[in-house]
Design goal:
With 325 residues, this protein is α/β, with parallel strands linked by helices. The protein has helices spanning 18-23, 49-53, 57-61, 82-100, 111-122, 124-128, 146-149, 158-161, 170-176, 224-227, 246-258, 269-273, 283-302; strands at 25-26, 38-42, 68-72, 104-109, 130-136, 156-157, 187-191, 219-223, 306-307. Strands 1-3-2-4-5-7-8 form a 7-stranded mixed sheet, sandwiched between helices. Strands 6-9 form a two-stranded antiparallel sheet. InterPro entries: AB_hydrolase_fold, Stereospecific_Lipase.
Length: 325
Amino acid sequence: RSVYPQKACGDAPYTVDEATLRAAIHIPSGFTYGAKPPVILMPGTGNTGFETFQGNFIPALKGQSYADAVWLNVPGSLLDDSQTNSEFIAYAINYIGGIASRNVSVIAWSQGNINTQWAFKYWPSARQVTTTHIAISPDYAGTTMVPLICPEGLPCPLSVLQQRYLGASDFITTLRSNDGDSAYVPTTTLYSSNFDLIVQPQQGIGASAYILDARNVGVTNNEVQTICAGTVAGGFWTHENMLINSLTFALAKDALINGGPGRVSRIDLKTVCNQPLTPGLGLAELLLTENSLLIGLAKIITTPLKATIEPATRAYVNAMPACDA
């Protein structure tokens, strides 16, 4: 069944051509095309999928029976219009689901989560083939840190402008409208209240990562300092090294195996919270994971995809394609 230009009535129109959308999906040589459950890895601002995940979920999921990872290397490294970035994950969900002939799961970092949420909102067909979404360091409400990265009035990457906090961003306001601040598919958020230098606020129920569940699809919000209080996994964790946190991996694994959101009640917290990193990964992987932030900041500085005002909201937001009765 074709997934382009539209998989189902009610899906938003794509502005990116199908060849470009497909070329952004990296399918490793060992991909099983549905023998194992496919997982799409969606990066964060200023990164390709490989740059975000090479030190964490790519090696951690390799050889596992419950996950078969592919990742997205989006042109512009997610510094383009977030509405455009979202087309890549919307397409990938339906394309990978199609070639694997089974539902997919999504693991995303940072901006990749609001791209994924936008895709679920405006491409309803993507919801139907998604088992679970694991959201690491998401900024569903944007971040108050944008003015430090991009002072007002100076040219700034398009997607960074769109991640200004709450009412300062048309993209975030639109995303959150009509219960867009609630999950569309079973969702597990993982975030750090202690040392996320990119997304603020990031504490408790006021965290930008915190997502609601108006649709009763199943949500768990997991602040590592609360769940693993007083242990290494609940200590100082940055925006990026949440990708290699042991609780992050344990809850992601739980969600992938069981479907629905990851649940603390099903994991051995005493063991998990006392693991310094995702089991099997070490200093080399930690350094690769930390490097993802440096790569992102370098691309934010050098990208030509800059403006002083955020891109206009796409027409489909106010006039979604009608489904024939």
